[in-house]
């Protein structure tokens, strides 16, 4: 396969497909109702999450499904972004598939668990996805997000506007995706209004696509995914752990030194 065109120009916008893979969840079990993720996932919750066999199995299944929807070329390692990577469970699936990945999450405790896991080979950034992506345009060959984007639909402070945060997120994500790439987001929609809000803001940012519903006749097994663009990579990447707002120059220097 030829070299992927990673360029991005405002005057030649690409239409990137968007797919939502939705999963139902009972309202009383929703952690996003209990406060912001960086507080909910404290040291204790992060460790319990990472060691829960049921969660591990679900994360693996959803991550494999997201990777399938990325439709990456076979035998071609890619540079992938894992948004809301948590303790690195989804990233392990990317590693097993032969890909290099960068994970970002707002919870320092989740990232500490990932960092301390010897099987976690991804590079980690502490970052609120609602403030945008800190990467150069056209960087990634694909992106996944497992059970994370629904957090942006909730305001945990008076100055937080879910609509604006979603738009900032999708707009910046659109920019860092390479041409011909996809991004897949599995999430738990609370209602149709939430699904519509996410889809509308993605469309405004330039994405197209649709909703993918697994197990449509089962409210317990139903899942949603968002897909954007797919990209390819030819270089292994390492970057520093825990840069809150890592400037692109820092990322580039880290890439060049790897």
Automatic annotation (TrEMBL):
GO terms for biological process: rRNA (guanine-N7)-methylation. Keywords: Cytoplasm, Methyltransferase, Nucleus, S-adenosyl-L-methionine, Transferase. It holds the Pfam family Methyltransf_11. It catalyses: a guanosine in 18S rRNA + S-adenosyl-L-methionine = an N(7)-methylguanosine in 18S rRNA + S-adenosyl-L-homocysteine. S-adenosyl-L-methionine-dependent methyltransferase that specifically methylates the N(7) position of a guanine in 18S rRNA. Requires the methyltransferase adapter protein TRM112 for full rRNA methyltransferase activity. Involved in the pre-rRNA processing steps leading to small-subunit rRNA production independently of its RNA-modifying catalytic activity. Important for biogenesis end export of the 40S ribosomal subunit independent on its methyltransferase activity. Locus-specific steroid receptor coactivator. Belongs to the class I-like SAM-binding methyltransferase superfamily. BUD23/WBSCR22 family. This is 18S rRNA (guanine-N(7))-methyltransferase. It comes from Steinernema carpocapsae.
